[in-house]
């Protein structure tokens, strides 16, 4: 089968440049298990070769940049190249990152000849991805790969002749090549001349496969990759939608359509992107998460709430969300973002167990539609020394993970957080501590020394500009010196509990000489 | 196999109701509150559809927030869903200590100008809605929200100034214990809560509770002359100067009835 193979030389090096920004024009080597697996042109000129040890390679080229081998990075960087090839040719097989094969018959007929097709593909890849590549055309993927190294187009039927002169190392099987050399078989032609039955008897199945490849009988069809299915649904409206009920009607139809499309692929959606374009070209976009599966009704509800929020929306908190769109919506698009295989949903046997939960979820999702997904949160307790550190607020529907492990409900093996405040916890935790001043009985400001020595017993507290209040009970200083090893996050403070004459109790902290009210025991 | 059977039957135990148990349709009309607070509320609990306001305490910061959390605690523990609107300073640690299930508690810290819409939406689906009352709420909006709660069977707990509530609770006095000049730590607070309202709750009541308690159910003895109403906790009344027990003792109820003032 005529195969066209696109090969990018030194792909591991190029991938390192694309993903990590390592300049591929300099001497670069990609190492795996302390051996060089690929190197750049400059490094090769300095004598770096595949298979060298790191020390050896650096000895030959002292200014060598060493990059660790990362197959994920290579595959990721290769994806745009495959997409560029797919724009011209249908049915691409990714042989490995850096090489992809297509059946040559289609593009050569469409683009007017094999050379023209090869030129066109190389040019397109260079233009869209700025990646240099070479193309080889031959019968079979194996021969095409070897042809691509020299950028050759092997004429139809000429493949056995093209392969005959190549050394046995080209098979990519070092152990077999070594053995063949010692047996006096030096080229693929010599190897292909051996009787197939004897090769199978002597070298086993892998040897027999190599023998077929060497003879140019590579009949394996391409394993073409399936481009990801386009699951998004779009609806255009000639009449701009500016009323909520009209929008809701459109939303329901669109949601059913999306759900049918997902069901046809055997998929279900856990995250849904809603995009709308208004008549004035304004684009609105929001993503909804759901920890269960989104059914058709749930999709419709979310779209309706979102449109409701957009169309009837007034400006929320300053800058928290965009103002109401200036015109009606003319295009609506639903993009299923998180898609998983639908394995069927199992509701509870005694159904009403989750009814209240369902009701609450609907109400909270509705509020999320009005205010935005981050406006409805749920608190998760974790580790930490101050009351504010222990709590993390996660948007409703997201996974409830604490910011730091451990804390009051610490399981064995989790950090115990020595120095955290004893219960009871304060009922009012100020997100932004209030500045305060503390004076002693003589009217002098109270200071805490570096050795935690208090200048005098605190007697009066003034929060902000309010009138000073007498302190009737106090305890402290309780020092906290956190994250001193990370200068940007280091915090050193001393905390106090104080009881005021009016019955209030506060948690104070002194940080860098400044008194702060951190929490109120309301 | 046998192990799975046992797990299965244990899971069912929560769902299957014995025939002798009260019917949830009638029995769930009142959400439970901590036993110490039942005396304040006309139905000895949070009646579905009612509005129970908590006014800002007279000396501010003397226990109003803790009172709100204490009202929620028992209902939340029993499986109700709760929401708190407009309280950006919510102390989740204190809520958890009082027994509120944080995974069934939603917070809307900044409802903004959409406050009434948000509260109405939450009333539709959540059992108890606590909301800090914004500065300017017209009587008609307040009435509409209360009517909605009545219709949907939710409990609305406005925190702040609210006219026309079924019951209005207010912290009159709060006194902390455990903190001396330069020593000790905050351990517990004696809070005096007053309740006034309409209908069955028209007669003003006042009780004293530990809020938060020191995690140890015990009664503050009253002067020997008056009879004890505090015997509901089932503990004898002992000397007033009992030492504060160590905090390592089993923490069961964080709230203790003290007796009428």
Describe what you observe in this structure.
The complex is a heterodimer of chains A (522) and B (261). With 522 residues, chain A is of the alpha+beta class. Chain A has five domains: 2-150, MutS, DNA mismatch repair protein, domain I; 159-214, DNA polymerase, domain 1, CATH 1.10.150.20; 233-316 and 324-342 and 357-369, DNA polymerase, Y-family, little finger domain (Dna Ligase, domain 1), CATH 3.30.1490.100; 376-414, no CATH class; 428-520, no CATH class. Chain A has 15 helices and 19 strands. In chain A, the strands form five sheets. A six-stranded antiparallel beta barrel of chain A has the order 14-15-16-17-18-19. Chain A is extended, with a radius of gyration of 34 Å. Chain A starts with a strand and ends with a strand. The relative contact order of chain A is 0.06. The model of chain A is unreliable at 314-322 (pLDDT under 50). Chain B is globular, with a radius of gyration of 20 Å. The relative contact order of chain B is 0.16. Chain B is 24% helix and 25% strand. Chain B is of the alpha/beta class and 261 residues long. Chain B has helices at 2-13, 24-27, 64-77, 92-98, 115-125, 139-152, and strands at residues 30-31, 46-47, 52-55, 82-85, 105-108, 128-132, 155-159, 167-180, 183-197, 205-210, 256-260. Chain B contains six helices and eleven strands. Chain B starts with a helix and ends with a strand. Chain B has two domains: 27-168, Rossmann fold; 171-260, no CATH class. Chain B: Residues 224-236 have a biased composition (Polar residues). Chain B: InterPro entries: P-loop_NTPase.
Secondary structure elements and pairings:
The complex is a heterodimer of chains A (522) and B (261).
Chain A: E1 2-7, H1 11-20, E2 28-32, E3 35-39, H2 41-45, H3 54-60, E4 65-68, H4 71-88, E5 92-96, E6 99-103, H5 105-110, H6 114-129, E7 134-139, H7 141-150, H8 159-164, H9 174-182, H10 188-193, H11 196-214, E8 233-241, H12 244-264, E9 267-278, E10 283-294, H13 296-311, E11 329-341, H14 355-371, E12 377-381, H15 387-390, E13 391-395, E14 428-440, E15 458-463, E16 469-482, E17 491-500, E18 505-511, E19 514-520
Parallel strand pairs in A: 2-4
Antiparallel strand pairs in A: 1-6, 1-7, 2-3, 5-6, 8-11, 9-10, 9-11, 12-13, 14-15, 14-19, 15-16, 16-17, 17-18, 18-19
Chain B: H1 2-13, H2 24-27, E1 30-31, E2 46-47, E3 52-55, H3 64-77, E4 82-85, H4 92-98, E5 105-108, H5 115-125, E6 128-132, H6 139-152, E7 155-159, E8 167-180, E9 183-197, E10 205-210, E11 256-260
Parallel strand pairs in B: 3-8, 4-5, 4-6, 6-7
Antiparallel strand pairs in B: 1-2, 8-9, 9-10, 10-11
Helix pairs in contact in B: 5-6
């Amino acid at each position: 089968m005529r195969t066209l193979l696109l090969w990018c030389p030194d792909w591991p090096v190029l991938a390192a440049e694309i993903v990590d920004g390592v300049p591929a024009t300099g001497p670069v080597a990609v190492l795996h298990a302390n051996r060089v697996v690929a190197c750049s042109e400059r490094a090769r000129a300095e004598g770096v070769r595949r298979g060298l040890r790191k020390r050896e390679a650096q000895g030959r080229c002292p200014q060598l940049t060493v990059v660790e081998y990362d197959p994920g990075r290579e595959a990721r960087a290769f994806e745009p190249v495959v997409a560029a090839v797919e724009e011209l040719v249908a049915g691409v097989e990714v042989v490995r990152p850096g090489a992809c094969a297509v059946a040559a018959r289609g593009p050569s007929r469409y683009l007017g000849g094999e050379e023209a097709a090869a030129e066109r593909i190389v040019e397109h890849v260079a233009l869209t991805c700025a990646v240099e590549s070479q193309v080889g055309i031959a019968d079979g993927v194996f021969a095409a790969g070897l042809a691509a190294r020299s950028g050759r187009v092997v004429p139809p039927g000429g493949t056995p002749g093209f392969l005959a002169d190549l050394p046995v190392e080209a098979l990519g099987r070092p152990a077999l090549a070594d053995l063949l050399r010692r047996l006096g078989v030096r080229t693929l032609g010599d190897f292909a001349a051996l009787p197939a039955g004897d090769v199978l008897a002597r070298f086993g199945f892998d040897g027999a496969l190599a023998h077929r490849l060497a003879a140019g009988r590579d009949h394996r069809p391409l394993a073409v990759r399936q481009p990801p299915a386009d699951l998004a649904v779009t609806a255009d409206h000639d009449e701009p939608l500016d009323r909520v009920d009209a929008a809701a009607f459109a939303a329901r139809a669109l949601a059913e359509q999306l759900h049918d499309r997902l069901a046809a692929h055997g998929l279900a959606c856990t995250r849904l992107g809603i995009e709308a374009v208004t008549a004035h070209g304004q684009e609105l976009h929001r993503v909804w998460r759901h920890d269960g599966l989104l059914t058709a009704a749930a999709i419709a509800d979310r779209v309706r709430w979102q449109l409701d929020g957009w169309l009837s929306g007034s400006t929320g908190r300053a800058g928290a969300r965009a103002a109401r769109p200036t015109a009606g919506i003319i295009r609506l698009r639903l993009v299923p973002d998180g898609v998983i295989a639908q394995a069927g949903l199992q509701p509870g046997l005694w159904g009403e167990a989750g009814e209240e939960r369902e009701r609450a979820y609907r109400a909270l999702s509705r509020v999320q539609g009005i205010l935005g997904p981050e406006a409805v949160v749920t608190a998760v307790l974790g580790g930490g020394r101050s009351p504010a550190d222990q709590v993390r607020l996660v948007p409703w529907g997201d996974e409830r993970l604490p910011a730091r492990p451990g804390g009051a409900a610490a399981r064995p093996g989790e950090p115990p957080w020595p120095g955290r405040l004893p219960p009871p916890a304060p009922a009012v935790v100020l997100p932004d501590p209030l500045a305060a001043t503390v004076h002693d009985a003589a009217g002098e400001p109270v200071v805490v020394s570096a050795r935690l020595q208090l200048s005098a017993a605190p007697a009066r507290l003034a929060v902000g500009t309010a009138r000073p209040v007498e302190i009737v009970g106090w305890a402290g200083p309780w020092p906290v010196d956190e994250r001193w090893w990370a200068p940007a996050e280091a915090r050193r403070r001393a905390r106090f509990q104080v009881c005021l004459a009016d019955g209030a109790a506060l948690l104070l902290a002194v940080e860098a000489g400044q008194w702060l009210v951190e929490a109120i025991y309301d | 196999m046998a192990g799975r059977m046992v797990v299965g039957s244990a899971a069912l135990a929560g769902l299957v109701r014995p025939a002798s148990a009260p019917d949830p349709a009638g029995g769930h009309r009142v959400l439970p509150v901590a036993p110490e607070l039942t005396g304040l509320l006309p139905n000895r609990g949070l009646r579905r559809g009612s509005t129970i306001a908590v006014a800002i305490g007279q000396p501010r910061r003397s226990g109003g927030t803790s009172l709100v959390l204490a009202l929620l605690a028992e209902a939340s523990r029993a499986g109700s869903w709760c929401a708190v609107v407009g309280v950006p300073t919510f102390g989740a640690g204190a809520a958890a200590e009082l027994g509120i299930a944080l995974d069934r508690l939603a917070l809307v810290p900044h409802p903004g100008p959409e406050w009434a819409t948000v509260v109405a939406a939450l009333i539709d689906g959540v059992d108890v809605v606590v909301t800090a009352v914004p500065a300017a709420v017209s009587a008609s909006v307040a009435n509409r929200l209360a009517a909605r709660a009545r219709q949907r069977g939710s409990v609305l707990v406005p925190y702040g100034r609210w006219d026309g509530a079924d019951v209005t609770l207010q912290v009159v006095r709060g006194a902390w214990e455990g903190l001396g000049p330069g020593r000790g730590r905050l351990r517990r607070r004696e809070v005096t809560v007053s309740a006034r309202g309409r209908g069955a709750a028209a007669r003003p009541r006042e009780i004293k509770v530990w809020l938060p308690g020191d995690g140890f159910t015990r009664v503050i003895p009253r002067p020997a002359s008056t009879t004890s109403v505090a015997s509901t906790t089932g503990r004898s009344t002992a000397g007033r100067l009992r030492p504060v027990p160590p905090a390592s003792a089993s923490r069961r109820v964080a709230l203790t009835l003290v007796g009428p003032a």
